[in-house]
Amino acid sequence: MKTARPACPYPETGAKYWRGPEELADSPEFRSWVEQEFPAGAEEMKDGPSRREFVKLMSASFMLAGLGMFGVGCRRPEEEILPFAKQPEGYVHGVPQYFATALPTRTGAIPLVARSNDGRPTKVEGNAQIPGSNGGTDVYSQATVLGLYDPDRARRFARKGSAGSLNKAERAEALDALAAIGKQFAGNGGQGLSFLTERTQSPSELRVRGELQKKFPRATWFAHEPVDFDIRRRSASTAFGKPVQARYHLDKASVILSLDCDFLSTEAGMEIFSRDFAKTRKASKDHPEMSRLFAVEALMTLTGGAADHRLRVPASQVIRVAAQIADFVLAGSGIPVSQAGELRNALTNLGRGLSSELAGNDWVKGCATDLLAHKGTAVVLAGYQQPLEVHLIAHALNVALGGLGKTFDLVPAPDGGEGSLAELGTSLNGGSVDTLVIIGGNPVYNAPADLNWAAAQAKAKNVVRIGYYEDETAEHCNWHFALAHYLESWGDARTADGVYLPVQPLIQPLFGGITVLEFLARIGGFASANAYDLVRDSFSSVAGSPLVENAWKKFLHDGFLAGSGHKSVEASLNWAGVATVVAAAKAAAAPTGSEMEVVFARDARVDDGRYSNNGWLQELPDPVTKVAWENVIAMSKASAKALGVFPKYWDEGGWLAKFDNLEAKGLTYASLVKLTVAGKQIEGALWIQPGLAENTIVLQLGYGRTKAGRIGDLAGYNAYTLRTSGSPWMASGATVEVVQDRYEIACTQTHWSMEGRPIVREANLDQFKKFPSFATAMNGHEMPGGNHSLYPNPLDELRKNPNVLHQWGMAIDLGACTGCSACVIACQSENNIPIVGKMQVSRSREMHWIRIDRYFAGSFESPQMTNQPMMCQHCEAAPCESVCPVNATVHDEEGLNVMAYNRCVGTRYCSNNCPYKVRRYNFFDYNKRSLKDIAGEKVPLLGTVYSTPLLSSTDGEWDLLRWWKDPDNNTKRSTDEWEILKLVKNPQVSVRMRGVMEKCTFCTQRIEASKISQKVKARESGDVAVPDGALKTACQQACPAEAIVFGNLNDEHSQVSHWKADTRNYSVLDYLHTKPRLTYLARVRNPNSAMPGYTEHPLSTTDYAEVNNVHGNPNEAHHGGHDESHGHAEHGVPAPAEKGSH
Amino acid sequence: MSDIFPKWTNRLPVYVIVGALLAGTAVTAGIWYYFTPKYTRVGFMPKQPVAFSHAIHAGQLGLDCRYCHSQVEKSWYSNVPATATCINCHGPNNGGILKDDPRLALVRKSAETGESIPWKQVHKVPDYVFFNHSVHVNRGVSCKECHGDVQTMDEVWHAKPLSMAFCLDCHRNPESRVRPLEEITNLGWKWSDDPKIAADKQKAFGKEFVANAKIHASQNCSACHR
Asked: What share of chain A is helix, strand, coil (3-state, %, to 5)?
């Protein structure tokens, strides 16, 4: 037995196998080495046949040497494995780790579980362990993981130099400067020291602030949120005379009235609202019950789209509608006049001003009657942009409807006591602020224009700020501190329900940022400025002192403290107080064509601008307009006509460019207009929006940044410049003029109508009760001789194969889906989907694997809106597969339509042949393009399409030279982008290159991982079927409404099998017989037949009946007009032609 | 004209065609043979920074593979051990085996400084292949099937092609490769020294094991590419 290790004849460096001909020649060393150790069996070398092998080996070597281009052989380059010197405990290389954490928000926090792949956070998901939670999140939290790797985030501590710009400062020096502030004001109790903060519900932060207030009693505190939900606390505290706010339980509601409250999208806590609301919207044959939603709104929102009855009124008139409804309800609610009389008088006065053209008496009455008929299960919600009075009316309504303790309860919400930004502005201008400490926020960008904030801030001698970006505000600071991302921070938070959550880091701060806790603690000169210690102290004060180590560990492990949720507070409505405020309300007159109303709205993508530099969110189409990469100036058709800016090339179906110019075909154009309010101007794209209130112009906040970074700069217009501190949500008297007739805009869905095709199938609840199978009744033509293919379906055989345990399938409940788009971002995060930039999106080259199709039906003025998530349907008879010349897209035996990227040669035949248009093609190396190329120059749109490496340069170096030096790094991304952005990629999914087709895989990596983990558990046993619920796709996981379910169709007890057995289940484009594995559950609406504008069928169904000549009831199981064997249906009620309500 | 073009030139096109065909065949065959993993990968043996011999540790001393590759049953990857694992035996205080040997200088240095030992990667599948160790070693596939007789190698070399065809060979016919779970890391193990008996036993065992464990080795793209 050979035990001594032979000396390797090769030198220490370089490749070891194919080194050169002479090495492989019969030198004595070589020979001896071969005889001792030649891998392929030394003894064979001596035999006759093996000689031939040897000669072959040599000749190959000579050949390679002769070619002269394989100096190191045709092996891949040698790579190193660098194991730990000492392995961290519990760490298994390659197995992702999950940590419970939370994303702090203004009103609370979103509990999350973050995935760490070898130390890199790569994906966040909702924490489903929290009582009541389903693990759904909103769109923002899904995207925050990209923000962690933003190359433009603040990377340093900086101080203002003599030239007026920020220069890097040493860490120690910067931290000393913070301590110096504390010392400076220690003597005078904080006189001249002001703090400007964002809203937070973090117990630690509030505690640290409290300590600072004790230390500096004369320091002043202010809070600024451009989109502030504090109205919830203020209104409830006023209404109930205690520091409380309302906590709604929509799952217990059967009638919901939204007063300009977009609780399904842009309200804080939408993930909780969506979850609870969706629970009441899933009617089934056995349980045909669901809630009814009334929406009164000015904007076309997702909530309006989900509503059964929608009343569009200008935002300023919502208060009058609310007053009228409240008046009716109070009259019928049995609240004694001694209590409610005064309020009713005020309401009558207020409601009187409502023009009957805007809201007919019958609508108001019908809504009020419906609310009254559901006392105890009715609930009214008011939107953040509505004034205090509307919120008070909503509280009064809720109490009158007996909802207290049922559809809502009250939880403690103490007043932080912070002053407003306007007050701080006054102090600054008065010269009483010596040092201003700004914690987060971006007031220079988003303060109301009348405060002239940059100038006001400059009045302070010393402005110290901690922020995530060196943005507009940073420019006007003396010191700037890099803020740590929440995935880098120790902290804590409370959800809006009061559940206590940890914020724990997954990674060291990438650029040395510090947390707000540490920042404040250093100013306060705390004994320990360590955020971890501060949070532990807070934990022991919440959970009970002294700190129990195991309880702390459990807290971090579970991600919440059990039993820490708010207990509800007993309180009764202060009728007189509410009446006083409502009586003093001054409602504006309804806007007219000459006196347009401007309303501001929180953006569903970039929030108030805090996510401007997040590429995923920038590229996410707005859920209603479907415009990406910018905000628009939206108005109704009539308003545009009244203003004289109605575009010439308008098409009824949507924005379809009608130009002869070949280049312009397929692109979407809007006009570029200039909007002027009170002498201030903005310039943006005009957007004609169905369903908007007349004489209303909607401006979305959060765009028009100048110092956001490479992604966010210059996208859209800055609506903050029109805002005033007195009336932050409305302005009036706007004029608009066209600046440019043609302005290219990136809109992902230019056509709005289904044209009568049953893509989204809908019925009203009454009809659903009669015809539970209405969805399949809308199926297309039957083929002659029945719907049988000539060829057997191979998957039918596979279903019978006992060795194939899984057949994957998905179902989406359109009744529950609201269109919030959280799934789109979750998919982008999970599947390494690149962003492509405005120019590419405008050419329909967006890469999203899921898109949310949004359809309107009915009149342009008052349409019904539906949403449908659309992704690869995984057809069993997939049209894409039959046209692929290289078998790059094929079926696997578990029913997945798989893509082998390495086989794909990019013919795009598959995409052409896909009836659902869900395949995405990498026209460029999107993962390697520089952010500048991607974001392009937005105004006018001139993103770089492609520049050849022969002519271009990156980081000041010729691209060809870069490639020559390092062929693996042939990227157009500059090093700082490349090195950091690659960290966000999910290592379980291939990053696709140029020329490759891709599409939804049903998260095949998660399927394989779950199968493998089950097999590993099973070992030699046969228990290898993945149990139902062990696996969730990224979209399913993120959906707050639980509208998506995925699982094994072979398991008849799986949730997906149950859903597919539902009578609402149908396939899109069923008549093509593609047999999709993804099916939809038709939407059921629940309108009240007593309401004006009621139609027996949803408007899309009416369209369907008209277009398809359905003579009978379209919900009934026959094909009137089509199916000759049955003849025309005699029964059923003709679809009424009435369209539009108001 | 024959003065300029002699008669034999009439046959020139035929020579050219035949020559081109021969050359084309030779090139095709050459590439087929010499540029496939069976040829390019097998035998790859980089020099490792530390003269670690698997033959001594796994063969002579009989250490189980999982003593060092401890996460192979849990993870996608089979980990290369941390330096601390070497120090368990070779440390100055515990074990003390070869504690002053110059060949182990790098190991001692790594243990002191915490810097990694730069091992050279021998086995590697392309980035678009998602191979999972745990599902193989937990379900009857021995290390030996892909890594060869590592217990006899002083310097580890690439023994199998690890090409897609190689993977599919086994996935198409797992019966012939699976072995009892307790013998997975026993690389030298055989059913019998007599090849005939061994083959019969393997056949019987393989059939039963595959049926009981419901082994259905996927041959779909999605099994490895995602």
From this structure: 30, 20, 50
Q: Report residue A1126's pLDDT band, with 50, 70 and 90 as the boundaries.
A: very low
The answer to whether the Cβ–Cβ distance between A1001 and B222 falls below 8 Å is yes
CB-side neighbour CA atoms (13 Å) of A201: 26
Q: Are A538 and A207 in contact (CB under 8 A)?
A: yes
- By the 8 A CB rule, do A1117 and A1134 touch? no
Q: Which amino acid is located at A937 in the chain?
A: E
Q: Are A1135 and A762 in contact (CB under 8 A)?
A: no
The whole-angstrom separation of Cα A264 and Cα A252 is 16
Render pLDDT for A622-680 as a digit per residue (tens, 0 to 9): 999 999 999 999 999 999 999 999 887 776 666 655 544 444 556 677 889 999 999 99
Strands A680-688 vs A668-677: parallel, antiparallel or unpaired: antiparallel
Contact of A932 with A837, CB cutoff 8 Å? no
Q: Where are the alpha helices (DSSP H) in chain B?
A: 12-34, 37-40, 54, 65-68, 83-90, 105-113, 133-137, 144-147, 164-172, 195-212, 221-224
CA–CA gap between residue A1083 and residue A869 (Å, rounded): 13
Supply the ipTM of this predicted assembly.
0.91
pLDDT at A1132: 37
Measured from the Cβ of residue B41, the count of other Cβ atoms closer than 10 Å reads 22
| Nearest Cα to Cα of residue A720 among A488, A441, A917 | A441
Distance from CA of B195 to the nearest CA of A (A): 19
* Sequence-distant contacts of A180-186: CB under 8 A, at least 24 apart: A181/A435, A181/A437, A181/A462, A181/A464, A181/A523, A182/A215, A182/A522, A182/A523, A182/A524, A182/A525, A183/A525, A184/A435, A185/A216, A185/A219, A185/A435, A186/A215, A186/A525
| Per-residue pLDDT, A18 | 32
For residue range A1060-1115, list pLDDT tens digits in order: 999 999 999 888 888 899 999 999 999 999 999 899 999 999 988 888 888 888 88
Two tokens, residue A742: 């043609």
* Residue A790 confidence class, pLDDT cut points 50, 70, 90: low
Report chain A residues whose CB lies below 8 A from the CB of B220: 890, 892-894, 896, 898
Query: For A751, which DSSP code?
Result: B
Among B135, B134, B133, which residue's Cα sits nearest to residue B215?
B135
Looking at the predicted structure, is the pLDDT value of residue A1129 above 70?
no
Residues 6 or more apart from A861 whose CB is under 8 A from it? A312, A636, A637, A638, A690, A691, A694, A1140
Give contacts of B 127-186 with A, CB under 8 A. Answer: 127-128, 130, 132, 134-135, 138-140, 152-155, 157-159, 181
Q: Is B114 on the interface with A (CB under 8 A)?
A: yes
Classify residue B72 by its DSSP letter.
T
A171 and A153 Cβ atoms separated by less than 8 Å = no
**Out of A92, A804, A902, closest to residue B216 by CB:** A804
Please state which of the ranges A32-41, A178-187, A237-246, B213-222 shows the lowest mean pLDDT. Answer: A32-41
Q: Dihedrals φ, ψ of B163, to 5°?
A: -90, 170
| A114 touches A124 (CB < 8 A) | yes
Q: Extract the tokens encoding A665.
A: 């075909």
pLDDT band at A58 (very low <50, low <70, confident <90, very high): low
Q: Do the beta carbons of residue A964 and residue A945 sit within 8 Å?
A: no
Give the closest residue to A756 by CA, choosing from A1087, A1121, A1128.
Answer: A1121
* Closest C-alpha among A1082, A1011, A1099 to residue A1047: A1011
Strand partners for A1046: A810
Average per-residue pLDDT in chain A?
A: 86
Per-residue model confidence as pLDDT tens digits over A670-709: 889 999 999 999 999 999 999 999 999 999 999 999 999 9
